[in-house]
Amino acid sequence: MSVTVKIRETNEIKSLSIVSKNGVDWIADFIGNAGGFMDDPEGFERTDDGEDYYGIATQAWFDWWKKHIDNYEEMETEIEDFKEELNDVDDVDCDRAEEIIRDCESVYSLEDEEQGPGAVIERINEYRDELGIKRD
User: Fold this and answer.
1) Domain housing 99
2) Which of 30, 65, 93, 130 is deepest in the core (most CB within 10 A)?
3) What is the largest CA-CA distance in the chain?
4) What is the mean predicted confidence (pLDDT) over 101-120?
């Protein structure tokens, strides 16, 4: 289920969403697990007034999460592409491929932007260079 918020500055209603490969929208877990739904007058506030939105948020809060979601989805696409690329590398068996993917994913941290999606993509590209994988 998407997260819908009312933007504090404009009263505009906006939604955020991440849909998994199996069709489940897990954005509330994504934001909630990172503490993004903590009541904060400078960011997000829950509402209990029965409206169709989950809370009230600043434009800055919404923009930050939108950017991070876009980056996260780009990272997920890169991981999937890289998995396919690893299938074509003769010197990499299934166990080694899984080890490489786990290593790439291990650098991810939502709390530290330096260890966010960009860090994972950077690690993937390091492996691509090491393994001689050329991108189209």
Assistant:
1) 3-131
2) 65
3) 59
4) 83
CA-nearest of 59, 61, 65 to 39 is 61
42 to 28, 37, 49, 111: CA distances (angstroms): 19, 12, 20, 18
Whether 57 shows a pLDDT value over 70: the answer reads yes
Number of structural domains the chain divides into? 1
Q: For 23-93, where are the alpha helices, taking DSSP H only?
A: 27-33, 59-87
Tokens of 43: 């960011």
Residue 79 — pLDDT band, cuts 50, 70, 90?
A: very high
In a domain, 136, yes or no: no
pTM above 0.85, yes or no: no
What the block records as the tokens of 56 is: 């009230």
